[in-house]
Amino acid sequence: MNSPISRRTVTASLLAGAAALSTAGVAYSAPAAAADHPRRPHERRDTPTIVLIHGAFADASSWSGVIERLQRHGHRVLAPALPLRGLASDSAYIRSVLDSITGPIVLVGHSYGGAVISQAAADAPHVKALVYIAAFVPEVGESALQLTDKFPGSTLGQATATQYYPLPDGGQGEELVIKKDVFRQQFAAGVPVRTAQVMAAGQRPITLAALQEPATAAAWKKIPSWYLVATEDRNIPPAAERWMAKRAHAHTVTVRAPHAVSVSDPGPVTDLILRATRSVR
Between 112-120 and 87-99, two packed helices, what is the crossing angle to 10 degrees? Predict the structure, then answer.
């Protein structure tokens, strides 16, 4: 005879599943008091779901400090893993995530993730606010690389900073990573050394084609936007960030931080997301 399943057993199983998701590169946001008030994962509430999209050379764990703070404020958070294979395909994937959510959404993008949210949110009725964290905000026809080169200040394109690998598709492209020995100074200056070393070891490569692919939509033209400028950014020139924020008429804050600002300074990042979230209510 099978023994009954206890609440403790169910809780342990849920925690084990969350750990597996984290290992797979997905930042897991556990629903508050799930045992006492069971809900569907994306059930409508009065407050929006906050969706966090990472950029190149990072993964969903780069949002961990922000997720913890948002959860303490009682928010539902989702941080899917971005494939980083191409702007059109990445945006289509994120759009499928957005379409699975019931209720209003605050959509947040870091770095290349900004280009993705700008395209994925086009004509998405539930997306009520866009938040750009040291991110690209392209106009239709612009690529991430074009915006990087618009102003001086980026050192990402230097041969000493990046390393390229051919893709296993018969020579039809290549992907790039930041060299481990310069990862901290290029991407995460100010982040503790050991943390930066872990980030460098687990960084997600992006295809060169994704950075070169022009945007086909610009949701920021219709959806209210917020922008965080990282003044110590060596990937995207801070001047480009200010220019993109101004063009998008975004509510803008400036933080003395590196490109990986969600890791180095999760507090200001969280504060800006909360500001955007309060505007939706």
Answer: 60
Note whether residue 244 is domain-resident.
Answer: yes
Beta bridge pairs of residue 164: 176
Closest CA to 133 of 110, 117, 107, 106: 110
Beta-sheet pairing, 174-178 with 49-53: unpaired
Read off the pLDDT of residues 216-265 as tens digits, 9 standing for 90 and up: 999 999 999 999 999 999 999 999 999 999 999 999 999 999 999 999 99
Whole-number pLDDT of residue 34? 33
| CATH number, residue 95 | 3.40.50.1820
Domain that holds residue 195: 46-280
- Token pair, residue 232, equals 């110590």
Task: Confirm whether 170 is domain-assigned.
Answer: yes
d(Cα 259, Cα 187) in Å, to the nearest integer? 5
